[in-house]
Every structure is written in C-alpha cells, then in structure tokens.
Write a structure and sequence with these properties.
VWA domain containing CoxE-like protein, 10 strands, two-stranded antiparallel ribbon, Rossmann fold, 387 residues, vWFA_dom_sf, alpha/beta, 12% strand
C-alpha cells in the first residue's frame, strides 16, 4: 500500500464513511471490523449528506455489548479501549448493562469504570457484585504498583529533612544552608569564612508519629476518579508508621472510613458517589480529628460547590490555618485536570492563603513532601506543569 493510500485509509477510519467523508476509500477485512466497532459508538444520529440513520449502536443486549468489548480489545491498544468504553457508557447509556457479570468480565478495567461501578454499588445484584469487586481490586493493585513506592520515598525523605537537630550524627546529616545562615554572626572577613558555633542537621530514623494527615474527600458524582486515587493514596500513607492518617468521605453526611484504610477496595465500596454536598460539616468533622495542629496536614478534595454554610466553612479553614495546620485544597486528584468548580469559593480560600488547584496522581507524592516540609504550596503549584 502506498503512503497516499495509507493516509486515505486512516482518514476513512477517522471520518466514519459515507458520501461526505471525501476519501472514496473502501474498507475490507480487519479494517472493516474496526470501522464497525467504532461506528457502534460514534456513528449515532443522521448520516451527513443523507439524512438517514446510520447503522451504529449496541442495542440493549448484554451479550452483544460483551462481544463488542472483546472486539475492541482485539483491535485497539488498552488506552484506546478505555476511552471507547467510557464514551460508550456515556453516549449509549450502557450503565444498566454494567450490572451483568459477563459485561464486567469483558471490560478493560480503568479508574473511570471503577467510578461508574461505585455509583451503581447500591443497586448492584449479588451476582454482579463479586465480579465488580474483582475488577476494582485489579485497578487498585495496578495503581498501588504505580504510585506506592514513589509516595513512600517522597514522604520518608521529607520527614527526614524536616526533622531538625543541633547534633547531627554524620556529616551527611548537616544542613549546610541553615548552618551557615544561623552562624553568619561568626563570619571572619580576614579568613573569608564562617566559623560555625552551632550545627543544624537532620534527625534520622524517628519512629514516633511525626505528622497527622486528614484526607477529606467529596464523593459527589463529578469527583469519582478523585475518590479512587484518594483511597489508594490514603492506604499507602496509612501504612507508614511515621504518619497518623485519617480518611473521611462526605456528601450531605460525613462517613469516617479510616478503619478501612488497610483495604482500599473495601474502602471504595464504603463510598456512595452522588448526592448533595456539605463541605462545612465535613471540615468540622476533620478538624476534630486533629490533635497536633502544628504537625498536621488537612487535605480537602472537592469541587467546592457548597450546599452547607459557606461563611462557616471559610471560618473553619481560617481557624485551622491560624492554629498551624497545613491546609491544602485540591479541586481534583486525577489525570483530567480541574473539573467545573466554584470559582467564588476558590477565590475566598486563596484570600485566606489556601490556594485551590487540581493535582495529578503522579504529582501528589511531591505535594505531600512539600506539605511535610511546610513549603509555600501556592508557589509549589505555580512551578509545577503537571498539577
């Protein structure tokens, strides 16, 4: 096949065929089957130039959908399959069919699919629940393989660096920048040097709890991916003895899931995506979990659409800041960037010195390190290209 023919073939697959696609290219064999799989989702509605309905669609048959899922996994890479699955669920309203066990066995597991299944948790029949739980566990285990080691390394390093001592045991433990600054009064011009009378260094291998972390997660429908990632990160942080980690989810009520942090799959099935939002009530509960404000990090993950008392919410955040708590607001913890969010509340929080921004899962470990070291989070976010 010539380069020109290959270009026409690719454009034909992109445009979907019909008189108006302009390629004049026919498809056979594997190409025709790939085109049919794409048409089932993307060729809905009147055909361009004809006014007649295209023959796309998956119907309402679970076996037919399961076959289609098997086909696209054969024709396309997993990243494309995940996009097509998500589009099929949204465009063709296949949510009900996800309750069928054969469907759950055929899909490519991903974060968005987990969010959809969690939203269906309360109406899921027992037969489908076990298949759903196995699928969720596969996604969680993959996320843990991807994120756990980086998170533990970033947090451990930050804790080591933030633990100061005036008696460092090794030369490698001396913080030379701070040591020079505190000894500038001992500068000898004739020697062009500083004579340190006091060393500042890092205290290593502290075994007691050094930080309290509270994750407060909005479980409204738009936050599904954030709920999944937050649960995985919460489980990783809870496994570290130097941190005391709590996790609560909220809509109009608040549910403390800290005792489920040992198993993020059980934790996820304890959430209930959808419903209203009372951020003020959630912050009030999370505030009550903090016993050492100066050593605490409070992370609110929410789109900030408040159904509760807005002014009281802002007063609580201001009070935590005043007490020494490191407060961080994430509009999302996902790969998709910031969702629709309440700009007025975000601006009010920024005025309190609490910037609100979206964060990718890959950037979250570094964010935790910055928070532990009490760096300027607004400046950290400005410097990052992946938040």
């Amino acid at each position: 096949m010539s380069a020109a023919d290959e270009r026409l073939r690719r454009w034909r697959l992109v445009l979907g065929g019909g008189e108006a696609d302009g390629t004049g290219c026919g498809l056979e064999g594997l190409d025709a089957r790939m085109d049919a799989a794409l048409a089932a989702v993307y060729d809905q509605g009147p055909e361009q130039g004809r006014g007649q309905a295209r023959e796309g669609g998956l119907g309402a048959s679970a076996p037919r959908v399961a076959r289609w899922l098997g086909d696209i996994r054969t024709y396309f890479p997993s990243t494309v399959v995940q996009v097509m699955q998500k589009d099929a669920i949204e465009r063709l309203n296949l949510t009900r069919l996800l309750l069928e066990p054969e469907m759950l066995e055929a899909v490519e597991p991903d974060v968005h699919l987990v969010g959809t299944l969690l939203a269906l948790n309360k109406v899921m029949p027992d037969q489908a629940r076990e298949s759903a739980r196995a699928l969720v566990r596969r996604v969680v285990e993959e996320l843990e393989r991807r994120l756990a080691q980086k998170t533990r390394a970033a947090v451990t390093g930050a804790l080591d660096r933030s633990a100061r001592t005036h008696r460092p045991k090794r030369v490698a433990d001396i913080d030379w920048d701070r040591t020079i600054r505190v000894n500038l009064k001992n500068y000898l011009p004739e020697k062009n040097t500083v004579v340190p009378s006091r060393l500042v260094g890092y205290a290593r291998r502290q075994r007691s709890v050094q930080r309290e972390v509270v994750l407060c997660i909005d479980q409204s429908g738009s936050m599904a991916a954030s709920v999944v990632y937050s649960s995985v990160f919460g489980a990783v942080l809870a496994s570290m003895r130097s941190l005391k980690t709590s996790l609560v989810v909220f809509d109009t009520a608040v549910v403390d899931l800290t005792d489920q942090l040992h198993d993020p799959v059980e934790l996820l099935f304890g959430t209930q995506l959808g419903g209203g939002t009372d951020i003020n009530r959630a912050i009030a509960y999370g505030q009550g979990l903090i016993t050492r404000p100066a050593d605490s990090i409070f992370i609110l993950i929410s789109d900030l659409y408040e159904g509760g008392v807005r002014q009281e919410m802002l007063r609580r955040v201001a009070a935590m800041k005043e007490a020494g708590v490191q407060v961080i607001v994430l509009l999302a913890l996902s790969d998709e960037g910031a969702p629709f969010y309440d700009h007025e509340n975000a601006a009010a929080l920024a005025a309190l010195g609490v910037p609100a921004f979206a964060c990718t899962p890959d950037a979250f470990p570094d964010l935790m390190a910055a928070a532990i070291e009490r760096r300027d989070i607004a400046r950290w976010a400005e410097r990052r290209t992946d938040v």
